[in-house]
């Protein structure tokens, strides 16, 4: 019986028990949705602005473009050497040559940094196109990730030692360099809500400051008029009482000039608004 009584006292909360009722719900109109996870091999993460182009099926393969026999051959024979009737690898080789030609230094250049980046970019885009069709190919996914990391290392090296050539390669290959982040952090709901709350508070602060600024600007003309009258009154009283004059004529003229300029500006704005409404 004593054990049952102890269990009842433990399970039933006491009257004086502290219950947390804060920080559970927020009255702010802030809604956070977890961002969709984008794999690192996607073009949005890798920095490729273009995908694998669609080559015409009637194009000849790389090794048979200058063949004189195919120029006079039968149509059925010629179709056997086109990209449409051959393996996908032939189309990729054609695309590799096109990417290397964009950045190579001479006709036989396949070993420079630019040519290597062109070859890697062609291979990456072909694997990205393959992954769109077969997303469960884990071996191809690993190869694609390794290639993207290798190209990023090459770009980082080129950016460090020859920035003009780095910009040239990015422009010719339609790439965007996306470096590694300086520090890694998990995307959590708590941190995201904290950032959104800070942004919301900053927006409220800016709107209130803007409203207060407009309120002060609306009172500026009356303030300058009262200031001008007060300065003139002080100068007049000091001269009549024959005491040292603390308000100079230059100060009164400066305030009058500021008042006139502001009045002209307000009248011009009112006239422009009226003309806009009438039109």
UniProtKB/TrEMBL annotation:
Organism the protein comes from: Anopheles stephensi (Indo-Pakistan malaria mosquito)
Assigned protein family: Belongs to the universal ribosomal protein uS15 family.
One GO CC term on file: mitochondrial small ribosomal subunit
GO molecular function: RNA binding; structural constituent of ribosome
Entry-linked InterPro entries: Ribosomal_uS15, uS15_NS1_RNA-bd_sf, uS15_ribosomal
GO biological process, any: mitochondrial translation
Transmembrane intervals: none
Any Pfam family the entry gives: Ribosomal_S15
Name of this chain's protein: Small ribosomal subunit protein uS15m
């Amino acid at each position: 019986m004593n054990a049952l009584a102890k269990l009842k006292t433990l399970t039933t909360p006491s009257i004086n028990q502290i219950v947390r009722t804060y920080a559970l719900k927020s009255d702010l109109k802030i809604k956070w949705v977890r961002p969709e996870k984008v794999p690192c091999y996607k073009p949005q993460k890798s920095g490729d602005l273009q995908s694998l182009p669609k080559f015409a099926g009637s194009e000849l393969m790389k090794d048979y473009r200058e063949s004189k026999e195919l120029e006079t051959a039968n149509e059925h024979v010629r179709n056997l050497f086109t990209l449409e009737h051959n393996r996908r690898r032939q189309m990729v080789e054609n695309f590799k040559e096109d990417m290397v030609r964009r950045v190579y230094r001479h006709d036989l250049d396949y070993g420079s940094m630019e040519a290597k980046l062109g070859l890697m970019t062609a291979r990456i885009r072909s694997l990205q196109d393959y992954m769109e069709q077969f997303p469960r190919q884990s071996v191809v996914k690993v190869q694609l990730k390794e290639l993207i990391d290798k190209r990023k290392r090459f770009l980082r090296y080129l950016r460090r030692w020859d920035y003009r050539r780095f910009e040239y390669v990015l422009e010719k290959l339609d790439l965007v360099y996306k470096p590694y982040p300086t520090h890694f952090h998990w995307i959590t709901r708590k941190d995201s809500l904290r950032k959104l709350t800070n942004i919301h508070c900053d927006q409220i602060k800016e709107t209130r400051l803007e409203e207060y600024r407009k309120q002060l600007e609306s009172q500026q003309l009356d303030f300058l008029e009262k200031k001008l009258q007060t300065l003139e009154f002080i100068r007049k009283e000091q001269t009549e009482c024959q005491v040292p004059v603390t308000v100079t004529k230059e100060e009164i003229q400066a305030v009058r000039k500021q008042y006139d300029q502001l009045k002209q500006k307000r009248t011009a704005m009112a006239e422009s608004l009226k003309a806009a409404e009438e039109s």
